[in-house]
Amino acid sequence: MGWTARNMPDQSGRTAVVTGANGGLGYVTARELARRGARVVLACRSEERGAAARERLVRELPEAAERTLLRPLDLGDLSSVRAFAKELPDARVDLLINNAGVMALPYGTTADGFETQFGVNHLGHFALTGLLLERLLAAPAPRVVTVSSGLHALANIDLRDLDSRARYGRWTAYARAKTANLLFTHELARRARHTALIAAAAHPGYADTGLQTAGARLEGRRAVERFMRLGNRLAAQPARGGALPLLYAATAPEVAPDAFIGPRLLARGAPVSSPRAPWTRDDRAAALLWAASERLTGVGAGEYGALEVAA
């Protein structure tokens, strides 16, 4: 049968920050961590949807009411990322689940002028991780789990055009952002190798999370939206199945640094080590992306300094 959420070790006394926890994979991940005793911070762009998610979680797990905290976080606005980190009351963070993301949107930019998919999926989480790093290193066994996708294999990043300004394709830009997630994990794992921090990545396979229809809905492409909904209904696994690789990467004792966890059958199934494109282990590309991310976000040696010494 394989690993399920019931196999998770007890999480009592641990604090987890889950981005995009208002729905889909993020909600299930937050709920199951709370079920196992964790204090969970729901980091959500929409306070209204976040409040509804917290209410739902407390209805399902009344015993978690005092261990569930909602905080606003817009990964497409670096000022929001900084405010979230500054206002987070916890002196220690044991788990950071970099889950929130966008998929295959029409071309747009974040509040800071970055292409939306690269800015939200990668740069926002790069900045958040750096700003929470001191609190992560204060934990005895911290982990950072960043959610990528099997679709990363469609495209490598272009270090000369990280914002896809020269030529934009929604799925290519998505794949590049998901490759960036894996390169970030690769470099973070390398820099953290002399610390207790484990950096890992995960993907949900083909899970019905609502991301698949968002781009078509924004553009009013109703036929495409209906087609994607039908595909989800016929082929996708529910969010509770898609969240298993995230939960495994976050809690299983055997997870190694730079691991990439996904469903056994790629699209669905129990979590196992997942194949990844060879370019996601490119040391030079990972280091160059890291340097570019520091420059673009302004989150650098001051925040990641503890790892710079070890690197």
TrEMBL record:
Key words, A-Z: Oxidoreductase
GO terms for MF: oxidoreductase activity
Record-linked InterPro entries: NAD(P)-bd_dom_sf, SDR_fam
Name this polypeptide is given: Oxidoreductase
Species of provenance: Streptomyces cacaoi
